[in-house]
Design a protein that fits this description.
The protein has about 150 residues and is mainly alpha-helical. It contains 7 helices and 2 strands; from the N terminus they run αββαααααα. The protein is globular, with a radius of gyration of 17 Å. It starts with a helix and ends in a 5-residue tail after the last helix.
């Protein structure tokens, strides 16, 4: 029987860090279900370096401790440079910051904290999408198992 945790572990093997470009990429020989997972986790977004980073973060959280709360942005990306690079990587990423501040009812006092809220919002979005798809895959694998196993 496949669990979300075991499928996350398997999926994680299809991502690697390209050290020359310093970014996470899917392997070319990845199976179709993994490619579909990545497309699903990108939502309406075209392939994006930060989305692949967040997919890997989500898979790590689900694989290592089955963490239902998702990864922690402050532990993963504590540096201002990471946060600024995330914000600058797409012209529409400020929308995540705006939505997070709107949910809070106010904006944080420091711009870096404001950006961290937006970055966390996108990370949680990706985590939820990855977890949702892995749950579907796990359910499908249960349905496909022969009776008595």
């Amino acid at each position: 029987m496949h669990t979300v945790q075991s499928i996350a572990s398997e999926a994680n093997a299809f991502l690697y860090r390209d050290t020359q470009q310093d970014k996470v990429l899917p392997q070319r020989e990845a199976p179709q279900w993994f490619t579909d997972l990545c497309h699903y986790a990108h939502g309406d977004m075209l392939p994006d370096d930060w989305r692949y980073e967040f997919i890997q973060d989500a898979l790590n959280a689900l694989e290592n401790d089955g963490d239902e709360n998702g990864p922690d942005i402050d532990n993963l990306y504590p540096y201002t440079a990471d946060r600024l690079n995330w914000l600058a990587s797409r012209l529409d990423r400020h929308g995540y910051c705006d939505e997070a501040a709107e949910d809070m009812g106010e904006s944080p006092k420091q711009i870096v904290d404001f950006i961290a809220l937006g970055m966390d919002r996108e990370l949680r979005e990706v985590f939820d999408l990855v977890r949702e798809r892995l749950e579907e895959i796990a359910d499908e694998s249960i349905d496909e198992e022969p009776a008595g196993e």
